[in-house]
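B., you asked whether I could sanity-check this one before it goes into the benchmark set. Here's the sequence:
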Amino acid sequence: MKKRLLSTRLSTSLAAGLAVVMLGAGASLAADLPKAVADSGTLRLAIAPNYPPMEFRDPATNALEGFDVDLASAIAGKLGVKVKWEETSFSEMLSALKTGRIDGIMSGMSDLPTRHDTATFIDYLKSGPQFFVRAEDAAQYPDVSAVCGKKVGASRRTSYPKEIAAWSDGHCAGNPVTFVGTEGSADARNQLKQHRIDVAVQGNETLPYVMQQTPGTFHPIGKPISYQYTGLALPMEETGFQKAVAGALDALIADGSYGKLLDKWHLTESGVKKAHINGED
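And here's what the prediction gave me:
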């Protein structure tokens, strides 16, 4: 009886100690928040909910859903604040961050060096452009080299046109791909289904979700042709804020919450092992 009582007391003591450590870690992260965020208890994040499974509105309820929505809420929880979503057009997000109309951007935004003069990125995902074709044509593409000489479509608003051109230059000597710019990934998929292009490209973080929604329609070819990080964009001057968000992400990775969200949204292959700032370890 005494041994059982001692064991119970030790377990209780250890649990209490762990709770104190976790509380202390959360308080430490919150201490680095900008005053406006700390005072309001609210983190204003820009989002454009048109990029499933990263962010979208549930057709039945109109509620915001997606990996970014879940992860941002989890990060905010570690920081002791709540998220207030600000729907903003993608093209206006960085200017809104620069002028202080929002505190950050969490909307599937790629961490590109050309954006580092406006924002600092806390990278939480790694992905890249993925070739895919109509499922009925899969046998014609035994490997990625079969893409050479084909009409390849992708959103003209992304970095994909340049990446596809670079891949073609490096792999298709004398038989380059013909690039077709589209109005977005949905348009590229439609053109593919209509046989207006031979191959389409979109991020490998979104393709598994699309294939799940439309079984038997598309077939991926090989691996992504390049990789880049997706990050939560924050004001450049807020270095404490950046460290706090990176710390919150690392805490979610350590306690397994991050991995569960990756599994939920079929993004396991795109996960990171630690938070990166502007793509650096």
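One thing to flag: The domain at 129-221 is CATH 3.40.190.10 (D-Maltodextrin-Binding Protein; domain 2). Otherwise nothing jumped out at me.
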